Amino acid sequence: MININTERLLLRPLAISDAKDMFEYATDDEIGPYAGWTPHKTIDETTGVIDFMMRENDVYAIVLKSENKMIGTLGLHKRDYDPGVKELGYVLNKAYWGNGYVTEASKALIVHAFEFSSINKIVVKHFKYNERSQRVIERLGFTYTNDELKIIKLYGIELTRETRCYELLKSDYERKLLLWQQH
Which keywords label this protein (predicted)? Predict the structure, then answer.
C-alpha cells in the first residue's frame, strides 16, 4: 500500500498506533450500528480490529492533514466471487461528518484503484436508513443496482437490515472523473 494525498487528507496504511483515534469513534453508538458492527467497549478490542484490518492489507487510515489526526478508515475489500471486483467501505469519526472528507478520500482511492490495478468494478452498499452514506455514494456517481437483505449481529442479536447496492464500472470511470474535476 502506498500513501495517497488529497488537498486536505492523507490516506496511509493503518497502524496499531491509530488505536486511540479509532477508539474515539468506534465507541460511538451512531457509528458502529450504521456500519454493521457493535460499538467497541475496550481499546484492546479496537487494537484487535486494527490488527485484523492490517492483515487484510486493504484499509487506509484517513488522516486530516491540518490536525495530523486519524479521523476514519477507507478501504477496497476483496470479494471472493470475482478478483476484479472490490467493495468500497468507509467509517468516519462523527466529529468530522459534513465536511466532504469521505467523498474526497473515496475519489482519491477510486482513481488509484482504476489507474493502478486490475480492478474493473467497485461496489458499495449502505443500510437503507443511512442517508448520509447514500449521499456520499450518489456524489461519487455510483449506479444503483438492487436492494438486498443482510443479516448482521448487533449487541449480540442477529438482525436483518435492508441494504442498497451500487456499482461503478471502470468503463464509466473516465466520465465520472471529468465530473469530479468540475466540482
Answer: Acyltransferase, Transferase
Nearest to 117 by CA among 65, 57, 181, 35: 57
Contact 77, 36 (CB under 8 A): no
Q: How far is CA 98 from the centre of its chain?
A: 15
Whether residue 40 contacts residue 49, with contact meaning beta carbons closer than 8 Å, is answered with yes
pTM: 0.89
Q: What is the three-class DSSP state of 76?
A: strand
- Second CATH level (architecture) for the domain 4-182: 3-Layer(aba) Sandwich (3.40)
pLDDT tens digits, residue range 133-147?
999 999 999 999 999
CA distances from 85 to 40, 69, 109, 168 (A): 29, 30, 14, 10
Cell of residue 39, nine digits:
460499538
* Cα distance between residue 109 and residue 31, in whole Å: 22
Residue type, 52: F
The Cα-based distances of 40 to 67, 77, 80, 163 in angstroms read: 24, 21, 27, 23
Give mean pLDDT, residues 160-167: 86
